[in-house]
Write a structure and sequence with these properties.
This protein is mainly alpha-helical. It has two domains: 59 residues, no CATH class; 68 residues, no CATH class. The longest helix has 15 residues. The radius of gyration is 16 Å and the shape is globular.
């Protein structure tokens, strides 16, 4: 089960009722984790975050710079702009901020979801999320 399709399904099920916030948590001990996070944000700049996310998951652990640039081409991204972004570390401040946030709340596992402060660690099926979201929406009167 991949996280991307579940998240997309949740957003489609609850249009205008929930807000999705994504934070990066590149693993300290994975060789290409930071550049992969950088690649996902460089793809986001061109409107293809989820496409790159899915590409990174399906091609892991082949996440070196050359491979990332090839994936950008496969996704139809403007490769020169993408390459300049990952090479410059354009999003590194955002990534480092996300890492500090994760450390401040003792988060060590991905994926981790928070729904109104309720922590859910790991991948879960849609009906699991739906039950929690419905309960939270009912409590808030929405």
């Amino acid at each position: 089960m991949a996280v991307g399709p579940i998240v997309k399904q949740i957003l489609q099920t609850y249009p205008g009722k929930i807000r999705l916030v994504i934070k990066n948590y590149p693993y300290k001990y994975r060789d290409f984790s930071k550049i992969a996070a950088e690649a996902s944000l460089a793809a986001r700049d061109q409107g293809k975050y989820w496409e790159m996310h899915d590409m990174l998951i399906s091609h892991s652990p082949k996440l070196d710079r050359t491979s990332l640039i090839a994936y950008a081409g496969e996704l139809g991204l403007e490769v020169k702009k993408f390459t300049e972004s990952i090479d410059s570390g354009r999003h590194m401040q955002e990534i480092e901020g996300d890492l500090k946030l994760a450390e401040s709340i003792d988060l060590y596992n991905t994926p981790t979801f928070y729904i109104n402060g309720l922590q859910i660690v790991g991948e879960r099926p849609m009906n699991f999320f739906k039950k929690i979201i419905d309960e939270q929406l009912n409590q808030s009167g929405k």
